[in-house]
Design goal:
alpha+beta; 4 helices
C-alpha cells in the first residue's frame, strides 16, 4: 500500500510538471501570435496598429544621454527670422509633414507664384518657449515665439497694422548653424497674438508675440534639391542676399 502511494505521488508530480511545461509553451505561442498579428496590422492597417506599436516606438527612442554645456547654452537663436503668412501658401490642405527624423521638406513650391516670405532682423535675441501640461482629461501644449524689432519705423508699424492676428509659419536658426527650424503649419499655424509698440523712456521698439496651442514642437527644414532660405526670399528686397 505504501509503495503504491509513493508511485502515485511521483506520477502526480510528473503530471503537474508536464502541465506547467505545456502552459508555458502555450503562453509563448500566444505571445508570438500576438507579435505576428501586430506586424501584419502595421503593414495593412497602420492606424489600427498604432496603439500596439507605441510600445515598440518607445523602445526605439531608448535611453537619452546627457550633452555637454555647449549644447545647453542659452540665447542661441539667430537674429534672422523668416515668416510665411498662411495666405501665401500655394496649398493649405497638403502642407508637408515631418518624417521620423523630424525633417520637413520645403522649397519655393510652398508659396503661391510671385510670393516671397517676410524677412525680419530682430533687435534682441528671439525666444521660443514650448510647454505641455496635463489636465484632468488630456494634455495641452503651447508654443510662444517672441521677437523684438527696434526703432520707430514705418515698415514695422505697417506690418503690425496689417498682420495683427494673422497666421504664420516661422523659420529660424541657431547661431553658427546651417540648419533651419520650422514651427507652425497650415492646420495649426503660429498666430500673431500680441504686439506691443513702445516709444518712451525705456526705448523705441515693437515686440511681436506669436502663439499657438499645440503639443507639437518645432521641426527641421529639409530643403528641396538646389534650394535654400534665399529661395523663399526671392523677390523680397528687404532680405538683401538672405
Amino acid at each position: 500500500m505504501k509503495k503504491s502511494l509513493i508511485t502515485s505521488t511521483g506520477l502526480s508530480r510528473k503530471g503537474a510538471q508536464y502541465a506547467n511545461k505545456r502552459q508555458r509553451q502555450l503562453v509563448k505561442c500566444l505571445l508570438w501570435l500576438f507579435a505576428i498579428c501586430m506586424i501584419l496590422m502595421a503593414w495593412t492597417e497602420p492606424a489600427s496598429a498604432h496603439v500596439g506599436l507605441s510600445l515598440a516606438t518607445m523602445s526605439l527612442i531608448g535611453s537619452i544621454d546627457d550633452v555637454t554645456d555647449r549644447e545647453t547654452h542659452g540665447n542661441e537663436i539667430a537674429y534672422q527670422i523668416v515668416l510665411i503668412a498662411c495666405d501665401q501658401l500655394a496649398d493649405r490642405f497638403n502642407f508637408p509633414q515631418p518624417d521620423k527624423d523630424r525633417l520637413v521638406k520645403i522649397g519655393k513650391s510652398l508659396l503661391k507664384p510671385g510670393e516671397a516670405a517676410h524677412y525680419f532682423e530682430a533687435h534682441t535675441i528671439p525666444t521660443l518657449l514650448s510647454n505641455t501640461e496635463k489636465g484632468d482629461v488630456t494634455t495641452t501644449g503651447t508654443n510662444t515665439f517672441t521677437a523684438l524689432l527696434g526703432g520707430d519705423r514705418t515698415q514695422v508699424k505697417n506690418f503690425v497694422e496689417e498682420y495683427s492676428g494673422y497666421k504664420f509659419i516661422i523659420l529660424y536658426k541657431h547661431i553658427k548653424d546651417t540648419v533651419w527650424h520650422i514651427i507652425g503649419e497650415a492646420e495649426r499655424p503660429m498666430v500673431l497674438n500680441n504686439t506691443e509698440t513702445k516709444d518712451d523712456a525705456d526705448g523705441r521698439y515693437t515686440t511681436l508675440t506669436f502663439v499657438r496651442n499645440s503639443v507639437y514642437l518645432d521641426c527641421l527644414v529639409d530643403w528641396e534639391t538646389g534650394e535654400s532660405i534665399t529661395t523663399l526670399l526671392e523677390g523680397n528686397p528687404a532680405a538683401g542676399n538672405g
